[in-house]
Amino acid sequence: MQKINSTIDFIKTTFNNTGFIPLHEPFFQGNEKKYLNECIDSTFVSYLGKFVGQVEDLICDYTKARFSIATVSGTSALHLALISVGVKEYDEVLTQALSFVASTNAIKYCNASPIFIDSDKENLGMCPTKLKDFLEKNTTQKDGHAINKTSQKIIKACLPVHILGHPSKIEEIVNICTDFNIPVVEDSAESLGSLYKGKHTGTFGKVGVFSFNGNKTVTSGGGGIVVTNDKKIAEYIKHISTTAKKPHKWEYFHDLVGFNYRMPNLNAAVACAQLESLDYFLENKRDLAQKYESFFEKIGFSFFKEKEDCKSNYWLNALILEDRKERDLFLEELNKNSVMCRPVWTLLNKLPPFKNCQTTNLSNAQWLEDRLVNIPSSVRPKMNTL
Ligand SMILES: Cc1ncc(COP(=O)(O)O)c(C=O)c1O
Predict the structure, then answer these.
(1) Are 308 and 301 in contact (CB under 8 A)?
(2) Span 17-36, average pLDDT
(3) Is the dihedral of CA 310, 311, 315, 319 positive or negative?
(4) Judgement on whether residues 134 and 250 belong to the same structural domain of the protein
(5) Is the CB of 224 under 6 A from ligand 1?
(6) If both were cysteines, with which of 27, 141, 268, 354 could 379 make a disulfide (CB 3.0 to 4.6 Å apart)?
(7) pLDDT, tens digit (0-9, with 9 covering 90-100), for 196-205
């Protein structure tokens, strides 16, 4: 109890706040209002406005991806990304049981089914060893596709997730998938600003996705973005994200069933301002992680640190507690004391819509579900960071 009480005191002091401390709140310090006013004055509030293109340019500059397409959410970006690599009805997609539900929902939107691979305890992402083992034992190759021996269905994609901003072993995952002819769609919704071996997460697979939801490092209110180096994929995604309308001065001709998934200019205006502050956000979040690390080392809680070859944005800071009992006590006490704290997500294979999906042994994911908690991680104003 002593350790939990000191944690509460430490968080209140660090955030200079004796009231409610949220898990992650957005931070608006720059040109958000200015760009929003500009956007409204222009009357271009939907996706035909200059800020949409600007967000895309900023993300390409930042991640070094060749192309990007801004969308209404990270989930819609995932949906488009999966379609773009050919995922459709009856296909299967390898993903993780330990993730936010959006990644698996996007697979279901394609009428495809997830196969849940276990996590890597070291970085919280997909475990490359378990992935390789599953593919070696459970698939054959036919017409350039990996076929699942159990279901006889095509495994059309692999959707690994960089969890809480920590890069997974993405190079290894992509190499394994390449050997089995499976394209990788990287769910980097949580990892804007996180690098693996110096390269931006989201840019290792065929397509990557980021989220600009209100709880993310950079927000546009709601929004997301797809990144890729493949010109054809980029053009296809842009086309289907805007109702698949063929460009013409006045004709309405749609050659596919498209979506209304493109980011509105109003949201893009906020995203542009936020992206101008990204370096500040990252510095601030990494400073907070450092403070947590030294504090928890002193009191004897295990703080989840970035791993070798990785630079994490520390989107949500995490502790790995002793067991589920300690986890529940920790959650109870912090939340009771107005310090928002939550467990990692319930494993997706336990949720009703996914309970009959195929899984590997999920012992690592279960181990993490029993122990991992997230603690307040917002960017703090400069005066609080002294
Ligand atoms: C891992 C992961 N994937 C996808 C999403 C979906 O993003 P959005 O909320 O922008 O739809 C989120 C976040 O919300 C996420 O954490």
Answers:
(1) no
(2) 95
(3) positive
(4) yes
(5) yes
(6) 27
(7) 999 999 999 9
